[in-house]
Amino acid sequence: MERVLKHKFGVGDAVYFTASNVARPAASGAYEVIRQLPTEGDDCQYRIKSSTEAFERVAKESQLVGVA
User: Fold this and answer.
1) Phi and psi (nearest 5°) for 51?
2) Count of C-beta atoms within a 10 Å radius of residue 22
3) By the 8 A CB rule, do 48 and 66 touch?
4) Domain for residue 35, yes or no?
5) Does residue 7 lie within any of the structural domains?
6) Which DSSP letter does residue 26 get?
7) CA angle 33, 39, 44 (to 5 degrees)
8) Which residue in 7, 8, 31, 51 has its CB near the most CB atoms, within 10 A?
9) Is it the case that residue 10 has pLDDT exceeding 80?
10) Is residue 51 part of a domain?
11) Is the pLDDT of residue 41 over 60?
């Protein structure tokens, strides 16, 4: 039986992206959740966008922290 994961963040939520890739370092500051994506393994995924970058990123839920 497949386990259904529930997304922690919704579209429009502000989050901090906690992991960066050496090849493409992440901008600091808050990101906005643009879209919820299908899960990958045991982790929900999101498309996120920083106001300081011209592109969107894909991030796993384990890489995101909610902005208080």
Assistant:
1) -70, -15
2) 5
3) no
4) yes
5) no
6) P
7) 45
8) 31
9) yes
10) yes
11) yes
Residue 58 lies in a domain: yes
| Range(s) of the domain holding residue 55 | 14-66
Residues with Cβ within 8 Å of 62's Cβ and at least 6 positions away in sequence, in order, are 43
Query: Maximum Cα–Cα distance for the chain, whole Å?
Result: 42
Q: What percent of the chain has pLDDT over 90?
A: 63
Amino acid at 36: Q
Please, are residues 55 and 65 in contact by the beta-carbon 8 Å criterion? Answer: no
Distances (CA, A) of 68 to 4, 14, 23, 29: 27, 9, 29, 13
Please state, in angstroms and rounded to a whole number, the distance separating the CA atoms of residues 1 and 62.
Answer: 23
Q: How many domains does the chain have?
A: 1
